[in-house]
Design a protein that fits this description.
By secondary structure, the protein is α+β, with helices and mostly antiparallel strands. The protein contains 5 helices and 5 strands; from the N terminus they run H-E-E-E-H-H-E-H-E-H. The strands form 2 sheets. The protein has a 3-stranded antiparallel sheet, with helices on both faces. Strands 4-5 form a two-stranded antiparallel ribbon. A hairpin with a 5-residue loop joins strand 1 (29-36) and strand 2. Helix 2 packs antiparallel against helix 3.
Length: 212
């Protein structure tokens, strides 16, 4: 019985839930560990350790509940693999569509005003939106799996907010947007792409359920 953490690192005996509940005297300790089953395959176990106290309040024993969550973890892995496959297969055609739309918009001198507007709003804008949706799906899967990498770099909020508002305006031409920013707003530190996703979701949700 040599448990590991879900990330593959060893699980020292003194840090297992049962030992911690016995020695530290916590009310309850919950952890997930991975062990090798009788068939040689890894088993994911959700462990809950609850200390038992005597009349003086001293911990005399521990009741540990082991629940097999292997099937759930395998399902999560299948979902992650599917999202990665979908993202990989869709990213190339989306990039091609965006590139072709950009070339037509910048070099298509003979386009009618209606064709140019369809290129700008329908093809270029919606393909960018699909790309953002894919990024959101992958970010959500990475977050749920504990693999989301967050950058910490300085950036300016003003251009980010203006870009998000312009993007949303194109999708909701019937709405009027006003962006009010204080002067001298200092740089912030964080993940610019993730912050943009948060702001974009907030603005789009507000737009969907607001009058013009």
């Amino acid at each position: 019985f040599h448990p590991h953490r879900p990330d593959g690192t060893p699980f020292p005996v003194e840090e297992t839930p049962t030992v911690r509940a016995l020695t530290v005297g916590a009310t309850r300790v919950d952890e997930e560990m991975v062990v090798i089953g009788p068939d040689g395959r890894p088993m994911h176990l959700a462990v809950s350790a609850i200390p038992v106290r005597d009349t003086a309040g001293q911990v005399t024993a521990v009741v540990s509940l082991f629940r097999d969550v292997t099937a759930a973890r395998e399902a999560e892995q299948l979902k992650d693999d599917f999202l990665s496959l979908v993202s990989h297969e869709l990213r190339t055609p989306l990039t091609t569509i965006q590139g072709a739309a950009h070339i037509l918009l910048t070099q298509g001198d003979e386009l009618t005003p209606m064709a140019r507007e369809m290129l700008r709003l329908d093809i270029a804008s919606e393909s960018e939106r699909l790309t953002r949706m894919l990024k959101n799906m992958l970010a959500l899967a990475a977050y749920q799996a504990g693999r989301l990498h967050v950058e910490r770099d300085p950036f300016l909020l003003q251009p980010l907010l203006r870009t998000v508002v312009r993007e949303t305006e194109r999708h909701y031409p019937g709405h009027h947007f006003t962006l009010a920013l204080p002067r001298g707003l200092p740089p912030v530190e964080g993940d610019e792409e993730l912050i943009a996703q948060v702001v974009r979701n907030l603005v789009e949700n507000a737009t969907k359920y607001s009058p013009a």
